[in-house]
Design a protein that fits this description.
alpha/beta, 5-stranded antiparallel sheet, 12 helices, globular
Length: 353
């Protein structure tokens, strides 16, 4: 058991941790969620001893600090060393193992993450998912009792996320994990406890059901709403289309949807925008339906009495026809003097099933 009591940590004028208290149980998997700057990474660094709190206490149940390993978002592998050498360096330098002993331990851990066959390659020869698994194996050779993971999945494509998640599922059974992540689906699967941080303080903590499904705190509700949906404001015909496309791709990747799916979503958005005059702007919202492969697009514009999804009066017949082929739901409604265009793409269209 580790107990954090009233931790404070500042960097200049920025209050990274603000009276933060938290208990971490043995063999418990804790997922830290929150916006950028909420204190998640600073909390992990304080636990790892990489940062020292300005005040407050970190208390270990038996009075001795356990062995702690840390996995970083950007792998931090030595590019000039082979995979095997990356893993043997610390055991030989810190633990005093012989080269033979260190190689034996390193190969065992590479085997555990499915990369024993890659031991003589260099990091640049591996995929990002493989590099992250090597980084995990490198930490495991030091036999940590607690493993800290700072956004271990954020830089990975959907396939790599699945590979690393498989390793985390195994590690969950073996040790205490404390992970900072924005991938709420992974948090929902792995976490024994979810902790929502805001402005360096624990706003809400509890089970997956309590925090991710039925949160009590208004700040938690706002954050989850933001994470669930993609919002984008278009204020002129000259808005940054590549940025919007990149945001759509990133959002689809969050749910493990491949390139085909997000290209269909991007195409539907592009054709819908061809039907709407953008001079007065609009608000764009992209959502994924719960428990099914269905993407929901909504565009909200000021109502001028013109219907944009009416085939008899639309601005661009070709765009309207393409949109009809992509979407199984095309609807318009009026709310608070705004016209809302509602479009849905289902699994059959997104995955060509």
């Amino acid at each position: 058991m580790i107990e954090l009591r009233h931790l404070y940590k500042s960097f200049g004028s920025h209050q990274a941790l603000n009276d933060l208290s938290l208990k971490i149980g043995d063999h418990e998997t804790i997922c830290l969620i929150g916006a950028m700057g909420s204190g998640k990474s600073t909390l992990l660094k304080c636990l790892a001893g990489l940062e020292k709190p300005d005040s407050g206490d970190i208390i270990f149940s038996d009075g001795q600090k356990p062995r702690i390993g840390m996995i970083f978002q950007h792998f931090n592998l030595f590019p000039h060393l082979s995979v095997l050498h990356n893993l043997t360096l610390a055991p030989m330098t810190v633990l005093g193992l012989s080269a033979k002993e260190a190689e034996k331990v390193a190969m065992e851990q590479l085997e555990s993450v499915g990369l024993a066959a890659k031991c003589m390659l260099f990091p640049r020869e591996l995929s990002e998912g493989q590099q992250q698994r090597v980084a995990i194996a490198r930490s495991l050779v030091m036999k940590p009792q607690i493993l800290l993971l700072d956004e271990p999945l954020s830089a990975l494509d959907p396939i790599a996320v699945g590979e690393v998640a498989d390793v985390l599922r195994k590690l969950k059974k073996e040790m205490t994990l404390v992970m900072n992540t924005h991938k709420l689906n992974i948090a929902a699967e792995l976490a024994d406890k979810v902790v929502f941080l805001e402005k360096g303080h624990v706003c809400e903590e509890g089970t997956v059901e309590e925090v991710l499904v039925s949160p009590c705190n208004e700040a938690t509700k706002r954050f989850l709403s933001y994470m669930k949906d993609l919002y984008y404001t278009i204020d002129s015909p000259h808005f940054d289309r590549p940025e919007l496309n990149a945001r759509i791709e990133q959002y689809c990747n969050r749910f493990g949807l491949g390139g085909q799916a997000f290209r269909f979503v991007q195409l539907a958005v592009e054709e819908a925008l061809n039907l709407i005059p953008l001079e007065k702007g609009l608000t764009f919202k992209l959502s994924k339906a719960e428990q099914q492969v269905r993407m929901i697009i909504e565009m909200t514009v000021a109502d001028s009495g013109v219907s944009y999804l009416d085939g008899s009066s639309c601005r661009d017949d070709l765009s309207f026809s393409i949109l009809q082929g992509l979407c199984d739901v095309l609807e318009e409604r009026i709310e608070n003097h705004c016209r809302i265009l509602h479009m849905e793409l289902d699994q059959e269209r997104l995955l060509l099933k």
